[in-house]
Amino acid sequence: MNKYFSLLLLLCLGLASCASESGKSNKEKKKVPFLWENANMYFLLTDRFCNGDPGNDINYGRSKETGKLRNFMGGDFKGITQKIKEGYFDDLGITALWFSPVAEQVHGGVDEGTGMTYGYHGYWAKDWTSIDANYGTEEELEELVKEAHAHGIRIVMDVVINHTGPVTPKDPVWDADWVRTTPHCGYFDYNSTVLCTLVENLPDVKTESRKEADLPKALAEKWKKEGRYEQEVRELDEFFKRTGLPRYPRNYHIKWLVDFVEKYGIDGFRVDTAKHTEADLWAELEKYANIALNNWKKKHPEQVLDDNEFYMVGEVYGYNINNKLIFNYSDRAVDFFANGFKSLINFGFKYDSEGSYEELFAKYDKLLQQSLKGKSVLNYATSHDDGEPMDQLREKPYKVANMLLLAPGAAQIYYGDETNRSLVIDGTVGDATLRSFMNWEDLEVNNVLAGQPVRKVLAYWQKLGKFRASHPAVGAGNHKMLQEKPYVFGRTFKKGTFQDQVVIGLEMPKGKKSIPVGSFFANGTELTDMFSGKKAVVENGKIVLDTPGETVLLEK
User: Is 272 an active-site residue?
Assistant: First the structure.
């Protein structure tokens, strides 16, 4: 009897399974201009999110026992697509989806003192021209992108040029014209950060090389075995002839990456290890990615979401918004924003969030509206490789949501932020503890994690996420505090004929509350609190609401 009851509960809730349901399409959403500066971006590791096809769980002989959470666990493109169809991302207000690299990973594993590890995470490429079978097929990736676009969600693909995957008995090192295996990076100046290997046994691609190179022997032999050598060589010949680019290692990589854009309509790249490669490479990549995206748009006008140019956000490890435009290597200063990037990941967000809401919001407003005007940062609370995440024990999920989703700048939700997925897993070593499988089972039964029912946490993130997605003013607008305690602030945004303004209250008293709206909304204007759904009319520059919650999200 319990078995049938559980099945019925799962079908009714539609929350935890990878079963497909019909979500809202982008045509049903409120028409507001999409701005990368206000993006509500969801980041997931493909292998850790949702297993839509158990039939592709083991490939290339990757069957050895591994250290805990260091094996492939079954997540794939089909699983992501099914969650898009369910409306899971719509309900979170997600406007951009970033997932880990899709390239075919090394077939072998390595023992880093943590037990055997496979390239489940996607950052150990073996072949940039092929999709790893554990993630799915080309057709499944195409369906994922198409379905995301139908829901108004842009796709940001994680890309790596800095290094190949590690050398294993199944994965030989590439030729010396292509990679270096020494020295290891010391990180004390530019050369010891760029012209070196990040760690032992992670060959560094010679992106600085100005020597034309033939294909790596290992890659050419692989293509021949797969029967596609001639086709790949023809495509390379055509690319180099069309662009006039020399056959430097970096330019092969540019070709391989922009192929994804032109074939699938990828909207942007998240660039891994950006500071470990010459900055001008990224400007070149952005240039050809833009061309590729425009070509795709011409061929698929029915799928085009907007006229935005190709988007690139960089992982310049250690950059934070306080650096403004410049990243310093100690002996050299580099402006990555002038080299193809519209945005950089803000590694300082979790530290800036240690202060008050107003300290954070006012500071970011000033920097983004002045020093970084026309640029943006991507704020995050947790990620796949930050060993000291904000609220690691998940004890403050509502405050983290407030800080992250209401701060000026773009926001990155890491999968499971919204469900209190544990970031501390017994038996793991290193960053594996951050990479457990998405906790759908906790949603199934509404488990209490860190003292909070999971569905209650999710519902809170959903309300803030959808409000943010509907209002460019939240992430891209001008900030103004209206009341210090209880804390109330407003945001305004204007672009062309489009205007947007919101007023938000945080940590308000439960029950009856008076909220000043200042000059944001005139007397007599009816406002809706999108958190509770209640309405009120502005009188004497304020509205009065009676709601059980402490958060108020006001719109006209």
Answer: yes
